[in-house]
Amino acid sequence: MSDVTEALPPCPECSGVYTYEMGALLICPECGHEWSPASAEPAGDGEGAAGGIRDAVGNVLADGDTVTVIKTLKVKGSPSGIKAGTKVRNIRLVDGVDGHDIDCKVDGFGPMQLKSSVVKKA
């Protein structure tokens, strides 16, 4: 097991050494911080403006951002939908299916994926 912990970087939040991989993310079990290995390498230099995922207004999004839904969205199995103006906290950027590039939890609906074209950075 020491080979595995030496191969993964420590947590950028609490410097914990017990990080583990879950899909494309690294997770710290001590503080619960989640980050992508690619974002940990530049050490906070930010994403390139040309390569980042952008919201409906053109702002570059990053993991952990808070966004606001800009139009009412229909949700299968729900009589109401996600209303315009709903805030979604702690988003994760993913290579989703069909343009759904934001993985998040919406209050009252649970985990789901959204398109960056229907949100703006809060």
UniProtKB/TrEMBL annotation:
Domain of life: Bacteria
Keywords noted in UniProt: Hydrolase
Pfam families in alphabetical order: YjdM, Zn_Ribbon_YjdM
Domain Protein YjdM C-terminal: 53-122
Single GO term (MF): hydrolase activity
SUPFAM superfamilies reported in the protein's UniProt record: Prokaryotic SH3-related domain, Zinc beta-ribbon
Keyword GTP-binding: no
Protein YjdM N-terminal domain ranges (all copies): 8-36
InterPro entries tied to this protein: YjdM, YjdM_C, YjdM_N
Family designation: Belongs to the YjdM family.
This protein's name: Phosphonoacetate hydrolase
